[in-house]
Specification:
heterotrimer, A mainly alpha (289), B alpha/beta (260), C mainly alpha (278), B: 260 residues, alpha/beta, 35% helix, 26% strand, disordered N terminus, C: MetI-like fold, 2 strands, 77% helix, 1% strand
């Protein structure tokens, strides 16, 4: 008789844990549903094309063109990648191939610290130091694509660095040893053997960094200028999709609010695509092994 | 293929009938037939991957934990099929205590290690637990060495002491059988000797099955010896016979060192 | 242009070192800058008095309480869910389609930007469920944000517990739940705590999700249904509205110091945890 109790309790525990384990999936589903339910109707009402390609965002006059913001997001993200990827990869390569293990053990936590600094602090640093600097040396209002790109570039460094380090470390040491044994220098080995071998992990890290940059809100609001127009130079101010939502949520109502939800939908879709891409590239790496 | 000479007045404790074990599609044990007698020390020898450990783990159903594990045939202890549906695996494992090759002291005090199984079984009375700790440690000759530091971490003990602690841990549950899987393989000669000596004392109260890679240990310690090869029982009999005049040619080759 | 490989390597090494140095220097600069300008502002009064005059003077006490309340609420919800998920994935099942779905869900959740969480929290908690701008809304939203981190670190910690521990536990007559709760979880605790501490760090700095769910009321919160302002939100408002630079620096300093302490605690725990099993 005791055995039946035991078996039943075990089954219950397992079932309860299974339910708990589905919480993440459930939450994801709920988020997706709510965002889409509240955000898509207006897009169809006014026309999806107008939302995606319209140049004019005048919510009070029923004009909901998001193109300036979409371009804004893409431009600052691209800028962030242009600045962040070289630095990030350089750090990763340096720390894995050209430094002692001890140095890496010291510097890696420092880089993780970079990841822990709140985005508002980054934005603040941008406002207080970077923006005036750009304004004084390069002209323009300072609040610009350039400022946003630099700060975002710094913010995505930890992502790119740590994942790239992991990818490089995961390359079998036989690859490296074989190359060195054939007389190649460390750098030649890195360039011709290690980097190609770690390629999918590095690409995944870049895609993830891209996702972070596109999704960043607070820092961008503080330094990008938030002008609703397609920037004509990197010194021009810009508004991103995220800033659009954050700036106007406070006082939006009715259709205006719905339009902001729609902005959220577009952002959500872009992020989901990027995340899936990142997953596929990592999966490719896993499968290769 | 089995030798079922009953040793004087000893009775059968475990009966294995046509027992086979599968892991997924791979067969690990093939139609084993043997008996284990009460209060004997039975050694199981054979080269690696011969199924010795798998067999031992079939006795306390530890193999159930492996995904894809499947059995055929029967193992009965005191007449009851241990794979029967009404059998409580948890209680079975208390009756057959197992000691592993590497001493695994849990990250707890010596005291808490010894009575770990008792706590799981629900025993709570502090005085009773104290008694159990003392008795069990005495039986393995550890009491005098550690009685003044029962609350210190078990991880601080030496390898030999930890292994004796593991034996004490199963004795605390008052099992009927002691299953040992290469218990001295990682230990120094002195600890090995201490443990072999305690086995000799313990067989008075327990039935002991000892898997060992070390044929000399089997010769030193065991009443009977069984020789496994590739998941099959090749021969079983009194230790003297197995080591001096075995019936089977393969047994002879193994014990004389021709392979293994 | 063909360069002698050795010279090429020397140049490359220097460039790489430079880039790394710049990266580290940026971080150090940020921290030093904030601390230099902000620490002088952080007195006991600063920490213990409430903001006066929209934050132009006084202290940040109510925001500290707001931050603590929100973080606590988030942990209370996310930790059981996260650890439970990790236990299920590591102990109660092998890799199959269900586990792939669960992992996919957690990974996607991890990739969602905070503004979307803010939007979602606003739609569901503040509006549809009627909690309004409150610690409850903010805490629940934050909980969903930190859930993936807790799942990931807990699962790693649980898997790191040696298989031999489980074997021994089972062989001594334990049930599965006894083994999990009395042997595996206690051993995995340092790793799990590390994940929790990491999540605390994330919650403290979170702004976008919080501002739209917990609001920005400066008053000391009286219940979970009160709206409340966190330090990060307060800092944002101070900086953006230009209310008081010194107060802003002070708040930033408190934020940065908290993050430093948290990262150090995490690092220390990880070392201790790793050392135990090597």
């Amino acid at each position: 008789m005791k055995k039946h109790h035991l078996a039943r309790n075990e089954k219950l525990t397992r079932f309860a844990l299974l339910l708990i384990a589905f919480s993440a999936v459930t939450i994801l589903a709920v988020i997706t549903i709510f965002i889409f339910v509240d955000g898509t109707p207006i897009m169809f009402r006014h026309g999806v094309k107008k939302f995606l390609f319209g140049l004019d965002w005048y919510p009070t006059e029923q004009s909901f063109g998001l193109l300036p913001m979409i371009t804004g997001s893409l431009m600052v993200t691209l800028g962030a990648l242009i600045l962040g990827v070289p630095f990030g990869l350089a750090c990763a390569v340096f720390l894995t191939e050209f430094s002692s293990k001890r140095l890496r053990r010291v510097i890696k936590p420092v880089i993780e610290l970079l990841a822990g600094i709140p985005s508002v602090v980054y934005g603040f640093m941008g406002v207080v130091i970077l923006v005036p600097f750009i304004r004084d040396t390069l002209g323009g209002p300072g609040l610009s694509v350039l400022a946003a790109s630099i700060i975002l570039g710094i913010m995505i460094l930890p992502t790119i660095i740590s994942i790239s380090i992991d990818s490089l470390l995961a390359v079998p040491s036989t690859y490296r040893d074989g190359s060195i044994a054939m007389g190649a220098t460390r750098w030649q080995t890195v360039r011709m053997v290690m980097l190609p071998a770690a390629r999918s992990g590095i690409i995944a890290s870049i895609i993830l960094g891209m996702g972070r940059a596109i999704g960043e809100t607070m820092a961008v609001i503080m330094i990008a200028g938030n002008a609703i127009s397609i920037p004509n130079s990197i010194l021009a101010p810009v508004r991103t999709l995220t800033s659009n939502i954050a700036l106007e949520m406070g006082y939006a109502s009715g259709e205006h609010r719905e339009a902001l939800f729609a902005t959220g939908v577009i952002l959500f879709v872009i992020i989901m695509i990027l995340n899936t891409l990142a997953n596929i590239t990592s999966a490719k790496r896993a499968r290769k092994k | 293929m089995s030798d079922t000479v009953s040793m004087g007045s000893k009775s059968v404790a475990i009966a294995v009938n046509d027992f086979s074990h599968y892991l997924g599609s791979e067969q690990m044990l093939n139609k084993l037939n043997l008996e284990v007698f009460h209060n004997e020390i039975l050694a199981i020898i054979g080269p690696s991957a011969s199924g010795k450990t798998t067999f031992l783990r079939s006795l306390n159903r530890l193999n159930d934990l492996l995904p894809g594990s499947r059995v055929e045939g029967r193992i009965t202890i005191d007449g009851q099929d241990i794979y029967g549906p009404e059998v409580s695996v948890v209680e079975l494992r208390r009756r057959l205590g197992m000691v592993f090759a590497t001493p695994v002291a849990l990250p707890r005090s010596i005291y808490e290690n010894v009575i770990f199984g008792n706590r799981m079984a629900g025993t709570r009375d502090r005085r009773h637990l104290d008694e159990i700790v003392r008795e069990s440690l005495e039986q393995v000759g550890l009491w005098t060495e550690v009685c003044d530091r029962l609350d210190s971490s078990a991880l601080k003990l030496s390898g030999g002491q930890q292994q004796r602690l593991c034996i004490a841990r199963i004795l605390a549950l008052r099992p009927e059988f002691i299953l040992l899987d290469e218990p001295t393989s990682g230990l120094d000669p002195i600890s090995t000797m201490k443990i072999e000596n305690s086995l000799d004392h313990l067989k008075k109260d327990y039935t002991i099955i000892l898997v060992t890679n070390n044929t000399k240990q089997a010769a030193r310690v065991a009443d009977r010896t069984a020789f496994f090869l590739s998941g099959e029982l090749i021969e079983i009999g009194p230790t003297d016979k197995i080591f001096t005049a075995p019936d089977n040619v393969k047994t002879n080759d193994y014990v004389s060192g021709r392979f293994g | 242009m063909y360069l002698n490989p050795r010279i090429e390597q020397k140049i490359v090494r220097t460039v790489l070192w430079l880039f790394t140095f710049i990266t580290v220097a940026i971080l150090v600069f940020i921290i030093v800058f904030i601390l230099r300008k902000g620490l002088p502002v952080v007195t006991w009064e600063f920490l213990s008095r409430n903001p006066i005059d929209m934050g132009k003077s006084g202290g940040i006490f109510s925001t500290v309480i707001g931050t603590v309340a929100l973080t606590l609420m988030a942990l209370l919800v996310a930790t059981p869910l996260g650890v439970g998920t990790a236990i299920y994935l590591a102990e109660y099942t092998s890799e199959n389609r269900i586990t792939r779905i669960i992992r996919f869900g957690a990974e996607c959740l991890a990739g969602i930007p905070s503004i979307i969480f803010g939007l979602f929290g606003f739609i569901l908690f503040v509006t549809k469920l009627g909690f309004g701008w409150s610690i409850l809304s903010g805490g629940l939203t934050l909980a969903f944000m930190i859930l993936p981190t807790i799942i990931r670190t807990s699962e790693e910690a649980i898997r790191a517990v040696p298989a031999s521990f489980r074997q021994v536990s089972f062989s001594l007559g334990s049930t599965k739940w006894q083994t999990v709760s009395r042997v595996v979880l206690p051993s995995a605790l340092p790793g799990i705590v590390t994940g929790v501490i990491l999540s605390i760090g994330r919650s403290i700095g979170e702004t976008a999700a919080v501002i739209f769910t917990a609001g920005s009321v400066l008053r000391l919160p009286s219940s979970v249904f009160s709206s409340s302002r966190t330090m990060a939100v307060h800092f944002y408002i101070l900086a953006r509205e230009g209310i008081s630079m010194s107060m802003a620096y002070g708040t930033a300093a408190v934020l940065v110091v908290s993050i430093l302490v948290i990262n150090l605690a995490t690092y220390y725990l990880m070392e201790k945890f790793i050392r135990r099993y090597s």
